[in-house]
Amino acid sequence: MITVNADGKIMVRRCLVTLRPFRIFVLGIGFFTLCFLMTSLGGQFSAKRPGDSPFTIRTEVMGALESRGVLRRMSDMLEMLMKRMDILARLENSTDFHKGDEARFPLDRFQPAAGLMERIQAIAQNVSDIAIKVDQILRNSLLNGKVMEGRRDQCEVPRDPKYPDCAGKVEWMRARWTSDPCYAFFGVDGTECSFLIYLSEVEWFCPPLPWRNRTVAVPSPPPPPRAQAAFRRDLARLLELIGTGKESLSFMKKRIRHLAQQWLRAARRLEQRLAGRQRDQKHILVHIGFLTEESGDVFSPRVLKGGPLGEMVQWADILAALFMLGHSLRVTVSLKELQSHLGVPPGRGNCPLTSPLPFDLIYTDYHGLQQMKQHMGLSFKKYRCRVRVIDTFGTEPAYNHEEYATLRGYRTNWGYWNLQPGQFMTMFPHTPDNSFMGFVSEELNQTERQLIKANKASSMAVVYGKEASIWKVQGKEKFLAILNKYMEIHGTVYYETQRPPEVPAFVKNHGLLPQHEFQQLLRKAKLFIGFGFPYEGPAPLEAIANGCVFLQARFNPPHSSLNHEFFRGKPTSREVSSQHPYAEDFIGKPHVWTVDYNNSEEFEAAIKTIMRTQVDPYLPYEYTSEGMLERIHAYIQHQDFCATSSLPPSPKTKSPAMQSSPSPLALSPNSTHLVWSPSAGWAPQVWPPVASLQVWVSEPQHTCTETCRRQGLVCEPTFFRFLNKEEAFLQLSIACDSTEYEMNHLYPAVADSVRECYLQKEPLLFSCAGHHAKYRRLCPCRDFRQGQVALCRDCL
């Protein structure tokens, strides 16, 4: 008996010593039970949860049947624990253990035992009650599952003329539904009904199934008023949004910080001019595709080695402008972030987004556009009208229209997107079919301008080109020798250990300079000279803004995709007559000189004249911060490509571009061109306003871009639809023996030799670009604001 009692005492002592860990164990059992019940019971209502499959009832029921046994085992286990605790309590009552060991084990260590047992007993009873309830729920679920199974077996492909593609899509799903995990994500399980549910509820190729539980449509309440955009007073939050981890991002953030005060002053001025106009705040995603790892990101590693910075300059300025205008931004430079922001389902990109696109606008580039198309499925076609593509060299309509580009030989690696041409946004206003985005240059105050004029060295030249490869141009020795006779030549060519051999010994090379040091060098120099490459970068404008004269080579013949490797494959037929056509055409002398470098006499004469000429720092308004803010504000407020975009028309039906109605145009007083008639009695609500429209006829072999520029105007492709009518030819006294509708990016036009007139059949092909010796084209032109070619006089 003594031995038995001693063993009992030892058991009780161990139980009491381990009482608190045991409490934790019991709490863990309770927590596990709660989590398990939430999972099991939640599965019964999975069809009501967003993102869960509406086809998994049978699977979840089977899983829950197994869980019922687990619940019973848990109940049994808790009951067994309760019995053992009851045994320990009886042992406690039959011993005098307290008397001997009271010093080591205080009495208050025993008191929680009774309460703990009561709790265990209560938990066991609750688990038992829950098991009974779960059993009832599962029985009902099994019954409903059998009904659903019967319905699933009864699904047939509907024959509805409103959904002609349904049968073909179902056939495709039968063969390929396992090709992408996204189908299973949306609940496709290989059954006929799952195909039809997916094709009617996720996509829209089949009619809804009548037996599906669908809530009765009720009129949705009007959307709440949108938040208003307010000009911002600080750029710190933008710097956080841009993020870190890449040299390219560091460069962009440094640029934004450097120009921060310039942006703030410009925002205050524009805010005063807009005089409190209401501006809806837009939700905007900025995805810089060329900086993603998936696209190769060849730019970031070259930021500190003299690589091209023009694209990053422009992106930094776009971000600053959008942010200062008060819009809500998200910035991504990775594919994973893009997928997360868009709501891309898991898989290979064949399915639509999981929810409506949360962004009003998306600014990206060609790399980002390709990534979006690969991962958005059918949603890309639905939402592509919200995309704005930053496109340095432009995309002409002939290359943008997929069918036309394929048939006529205009297809390239970068075109055929079937976007509205205005959705492409360029660095310079060289392609009126596209929208001019631009960038900004550093602005000088009056004191800085006076210091530059006082400190200019009349015999100092800086060469445009940071990479040694630029100095390999043929014939450079000849014109550099002439320049060296008159000026001290400076370079900013990157090198690591030794001087690049391509740079002549008489050139003072500073190496790659930080931006502010490069600006100081330009403020001292008289001349900024280009070797013909890179094309259309920001540096010449920066040099002119700092009081330099820009000297560049004339290309004869002009460079284009037909004769120059750099432009080959780009979606444009534009002919580039110099290294920087904007500087040549929009600025010109005395700030810009374009000469034939192969003509030594012309080159030397230009150098002598430049040294004698005094020029002040000059920056076109459209490249100031205020000019860029004004332009982007106008685009965001007025450009709506979702309202105007349409599918290509059927060849059996007339295109909207071909509809004939009385012409609202009238002959101008001098009978040279057409204008919008004041007596038309109506004016469509379009942007730009039609009051700025003038219709001119080109000469053969001239583009509409050239034709309008000769009249001091700008070609405006938005207006083509108003002159794409037979009446326009009659009003201009053009005789037409016949009139035909065709897809051709040169139409509307007239072939005088055969007296045939042609109207445009496809609105996406309206184009300011293109010419032919056979045709004289009808060209829509408009006026523009001084220093802001992108906007007409009344466009704000």
Automatic annotation (TrEMBL):
Keywords: Glycoprotein, Glycosyltransferase, Golgi apparatus, Membrane, Signal-anchor, Transferase, Transmembrane, Transmembrane helix. GO terms for cellular component: Golgi membrane. Its EC number is 2.4.1.155. It holds the Pfam family Glyco_transf_18. Residues 182-781 form the Glycosyltransferase family 18 catalytic domain. Its main location: Golgi. One of its GO terms (molecular function) is alpha-1,6-mannosylglycoprotein 6-beta-N-acetylglucosaminyltransferase activity. GO terms for biological process: protein N-linked glycosylation. The chain crosses the membrane at residues 21-41. It is found in: Golgi apparatus membrane. The keyword Transmembrane applies. InterPro entries: GT18_cat (IPR026116), MGAT5_Glycosyltransferase (IPR052105). Residues 647-666 are annotated as: Disordered. PANTHER family: ALPHA-1,6-MANNOSYLGLYCOPROTEIN 6-BETA-N-ACETYLGLUCOSAMINYLTRANSFERASE B, ALPHA-MANNOSIDE BETA-1,6-N-ACETYLGLUCOSAMINYLTRANSFERASE. Belongs to the glycosyltransferase 18 family. This is alpha-1,6-mannosyl-glycoprotein 6-beta-N-acetylglucosaminyltransferase.
